[in-house]
Amino acid sequence: MKHTKVRDLLQSTTAIDEVSVKGWVRTFRNNQFIALNDGSILHNIQCVVDFENTPAETLKRITTGAAVAIKGRLEESKGSGQKYEIQVTSLEILGDSDPEKFPMQPKKHSLEFLRENAHLRVRTNVFGAIMRVRSVLSFAVHRYFQEKQFVYVNTPIITGSDAEGAGEMFRVTALPLDKVPTTEEGKINYKEDFFGKETNLTVSGQLEAETYAMALGQVYTFGPTFRAENSNTSRHLAEFWMIEPEVAFNDLDANMDLAEDFIKYVISYAMDNCKDDLEFLN
Q: What is the reported pTM?
């Protein structure tokens, strides 16, 4: 039986006799109520276990972080806080979670703690919401430009261009760092490197996008960008994704109109499609 996303179950308009859902246990209380989340939505769905007819060994394995597969009936909830809940008829433990070792217990964690547990932090409400919003924003970027008939182009990540000095660059080399070849002048001999010249991680796809625009009319890039600027502020990142449209024959007014219309579009799209996540993050 194909499993259904928690998001779809919570947005259901009617009860369903048999559903299948898979996800991770957020909490389990009174040996009866499982708060289950699969990452598709901020909210959990409550799954009610018939603990009197469930083996004690199985109940012990329902711990925070455990992966489970549940089948049951989607019914109107008898409690407050949710419209629907699942009356469990079948429960399978897909992956155990040791409560003594699993770090993401149901309590508030500092961002520093989450940074140290990066492989699990997306299971928290904060990072789950951030990643869903980021996903929707990325889709909105492509949707906007595709609806405007822009051509999406992929520009090189490894490049010899400094994009008009847009920022400090990370160097890329295959030379042995313990014995770097040098020229007669004592400088690094990049002719012996992989590309035969000095190369770096891109700081911008501008140069390539401009050449494409001169043939395709209007193009955009949306990809990873790197800046070797050692500035520990929230406005300087070593790696980020940058959006760069290039349009042939545009004047300054047209560029300003494009930027304004684009920002309005992606923000409106996110507000329409990420209401719960944005309210939570606010």
A: 0.90
